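Quick sanity check, Saccharopine dehydrogenase NADP binding domain-containing protein:
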Amino acid sequence: MTKKYAITVTGITGTTGQYVLPYLLLNLNGDINWAVCSRSKAKAQAQLDATVADLTAVHAKLPDIVEVDLTNQQDINRLVTDTEVVVGMAGPFPSTGYGLQTASAEAGIGYVDLCGDAPHIAKLIREYHERAETSGSTLINACGTSSFLQDTAIRWLVSKVGPLSDVRSIALEMLGSLSGGTVNSMTLNYQIYGSYSALGGPSSFSSERNDTTTATTKLWDYVKKPAKEPRLGGMYVVPSMTQSINTCTVLRSYTLLNRVYGPNFTYAEYDKSRNRVAASVWTFALKCMTGMMRTSWFRRILTAFRPPGTVPSKRTTEAAHATFVIVGNKLDGNPVYMKINVAKDPMYVTAATCICLAAIELLKQRRSGTAPSGIVTPATLGPQLFDQLQEHNVAAEIKSSWP
């Protein structure tokens, strides 16, 4: 059955949506019919008009604007009936976005979103992966910069150098800020699930459990004895705040791709630290914050400090950037290094690029009959996704030594 729209985008008036709209206007083929939806048609129209006015040229057709209330099941059903691929950016996903996620799983369509809420995704996989497979749907969560970058980069790196073991991703530099929507989503997860320990381990997104894919240590152990990465000259590293979602995503890809990353593949994620003392202090602070996030008073303070609707300043966004290194051991035992520079704001600007690339690639694969089905990951769409990302302010270099 021919759908009315190839792509429908939700949440275009949000922080990331303001960057998704110009990307699609500049990069979608001119013969593609697409739509944007919002609770307020007037607000969406104003956003579209302002975006078009800022662009020197528009390659795509202008989208239709559809008024949709994502808390109304009839609106959701109409949306998924009319669309080949939904781009979900209206959160928080455990509440506002859940109805659209489950309807997409049942409707036999494509769906991508920015959801980085690890406990929620684990629940979604448990309850809807098989139903999505049966209906022929393809759902891909975690299409923001963080998970998309690491997940597709590892798939791409393995395609270049072969199987790997003992893989680590370390953020060498990360500059940016959080929107009120991101903070609200994070606090809501703790309110619903109690803590990220509800995940049950780094393999909780995987369709099978295997101790060889578990590469984590308790935070208190890192406080007492900070970790060092010998392949990076003994650099001190601390657990990354994104390790829950990213480790789960990468290890799910490993399982879904039939362990093509290698029989001894493990993965963990860290941030660079200046020295031993700084590493212990930061990890202790992270441990304390994790505990306090379980309390309603601390969540209220965070939400008051960064209420929904708050967006990073233009100056902050323009200055934001990130640098990562992924290191792993090849089959011959020698290390390989992949340095990744993200030139534009990784939280929102580059996240918009990532989710658009995922949506366009998924549309292409669903039309050709080659798309995976079920609740999958960005990496399952293929290593070419990271090639495409490198055309958009992301630079990667493979090296045999460090630095």
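Posting the structure with no commentary besides this: Residues 196-200, 208-216 have pLDDT under 50 and may be disordered.
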